[in-house]
Write a structure and sequence with these properties.
The chain is α/β, with parallel strands linked by helices. It is built from 6 helices and 7 strands. The structure holds 5-O-phosphono-beta-D-ribofuranosylamine (GRF). 5-O-phosphono-beta-D-ribofuranosylamine binds next to α1, β5 and α6.
Length: about 200
C-alpha cells in the first residue's frame, strides 16, 4: 500500500478518480493528504467527504517558489508520502521538492506531450491551441515531474480523436473523461514498481 499526497488547485475530478481508484483497490494505495493552492477549490470538498486530511497552502503568502515548495514538502514529508500526484495543480514546483521526490511526482496534462505543454499551457487554452493547430487527435499524458513544466519522462498517454465541429469545451470534456482512466492506471503502475523499469 503506497501513501499518496495529491496537490490540487481546482474542481478535483482527477483527485476524485484517484480516490475512487484507491477505494476500489485498483490502486494499492491510500491518499493521506490533499494540498490545495486555492482556498475555494472544490477538490477540498471532495477530500473532506472522504475524511482525507486537507490543507490550503497559498503561494502569495510566501516570498518565492522555493519557500512555497518547501512548505508543501514539509506537509508531504510529515505524512511520509511515497508519491506526490499533481491533479489540476496549476503552479510549478521548485527544484528543492522535485529533487527530494525525484521520480516520485506524477502530473497529468490534457494533451499529448511534448506537444501543447509548457508554461501557460493549461486548462481550456490547451484545447483551443490544439483545435487551432488542426490536429486530428489530442489526448492526455501522465508524466514524471522534473524541473521544467510538463517535461519529465512520459509514463502513459491516451489519444482522443478531434471531431468535426469540436469546440474547446467539447474537446476538453472528451479528454477529461480519458484522464480519469489514465491517472489511476499510472498511479497503479507506480505502486506496482513498474515505473522504475521505464526510466
Ligand atoms: C484537467 O484538465 C487536468 O488535466 C489538468 O487540470 C484540469 C482540471 O483537473 N491538470 P481537475 O478536475 O481539477 O482534476
Amino acid at each position: 500500500m503506497i501513501k499518496i499526497a495529491v496537490l490540487v488547485s481546482g474542481g478535483g475530478t482527477n483527485l476524485q478518480s484517484l480516490i475512487d481508484g484507491c477505494k476500489s483497490g485498483f490502486i494499492p494505495g491510500e491518499i493521506v493528504l490533499v494540498v490545495s493552492s486555492k482556498p475555494d477549490a472544490y477538490a477540498l470538498e471532495r477530500a473532506r467527504k472522504e475524511n482525507i486530511e486537507a490543507s490550503v497552502i497559498e503561494k502569495k503568502l510566501f516570498k518565492n517558489e522555493e519557500e512555497y515548495s518547501a512548505e508543501i514538502q514539509k506537509a508531504v514529508d510529515k505524512k511520509k508520502a511515497d508519491l506526490i500526484c499533481l491533479a489540476g495543480f496549476l503552479l510549478k514546483l521548485a527544484p528543492n521538492i522535485v529533487r527530494t521526490y525525484k521520480n516520485k511526482i506524477l502530473n497529468i496534462h490534457p494533451a499529448l506531450l511534448p506537444e501543447f505543454g509548457g508554461p501557460g499551457m493549461y486548462g481550456i487554452r490547451v484545447h483551443e491551441t490544439v483545435l487551432k493547430s488542426g490536429q486530428k487527435y489530442s489526448g492526455c499524458t501522465v508524466h514524471l515531474v522534473d524541473e521544467e513544466f510538463d517535461h519529465g519522462p512520459i509514463v502513459l498517454q491516451k489519444r482522443v480523436p478531434v471531431e468535426a465541429g469540436d469546440t474547446p469545451v467539447k474537446l476538453a470534456e472528451r479528454v477529461l473523461k480519458e484522464e480519469h482512466e489514465l491517472y489511476p492506471a499510472a498511479v497503479r503502475m507506480f505502486a506496482m514498481g513498474e515505473i522504475e523499469q521505464i526510466l
